[in-house]
Specification:
82 residues, alpha+beta, two-stranded antiparallel sheet, 4 strands, 23% helix, elongated
């Protein structure tokens, strides 16, 4: 049973988008997707770590159905949502 289109809080999880951050190592702008907690700078290769708080996957009983089982599993393995 899938929720109609999911809750508004899950949109950023289901529909990831690119965000541009400044690499703390080289100072260059680089792309990090909104559903990634860890990435790498496209210029110098330095690891980029996004600080994330809690999300609906931490408390909602329907999170797995709402965002999909594969995405849910990936985020729970990483220990954080977007």
């Amino acid at each position: 049973m899938a929720l109609y289109k999911g809750c508004p809080g899950a949109i950023t999880i289901r529909e990831a988008s690119p965000e541009y951050v400044i690499c703390p190592h080289c100072g260059q702008e680089t792309e990090l997707w909104s559903d990634e907690r860890i990435g790498h700078c496209h210029h110098c290769g330095a690891p980029l770590l996004r600080e994330v708080g809690s999300s609906c996957i931490d408390w909602c009983a329907y999170a797995k159905e709402c965002i999909g089982e594969e995405k849910y599993r990936q985020l729970k393995e990483k220990g954080a949502g977007p």
